[in-house]
Amino acid sequence: MKREELVEVLIQEFDRNGDGVLSRGEFQELVKYLIGEHGIRISSRIFDQFDHNHDNAMSREELMELIDEYWL
Ligand SMILES: [Ca+2]
Ligand SMILES: [Ca+2]
Questions:
Q1: For residue 1, is pLDDT > 90?
Q2: What is the pLDDT of residues 29-57, one digit of tens each?
Q3: Were both Cys, which of 26, 31, 33, 51 would link to 39 (CB 3.0–4.6 Å)?
């Protein structure tokens, strides 16, 4: 699966309110899904690291960078 497709799948799956970005809470669910319960503790730190424009939302572009960094 290409990164672009992966981002779309993740957004579709975890963007509960359908606004096209992941909120802190939605992102926490994603991290939990990807790396398990212990991910909850670090999800906020990861969120802050990749929310480059600090709008408290994880956009597709920001999510792409996260995937580049970790290739989850
Ligand atoms: Ca959302
Ligand atoms: Ca952002």
A1: no
A2: 999 998 899 888 999 999 999 999 999 99
A3: 31
Ligand nearest to the CA of 20: 1
User: The domain containing residue 13 runs over which residues?
Assistant: 3-70
Count how many domains the chain has: 1
Ligand 1: centre distance to CA 68 (Å): 21
Taking the model in full, what pTM does it have?
0.89
Q: Give the CATH number, domain containing residue 22.
A: 1.10.238.10
How far apart are the CA of 7 and the centre of ligand 1, in A? Answer: 14
Which DSSP category does 59 fall into?
Answer: -
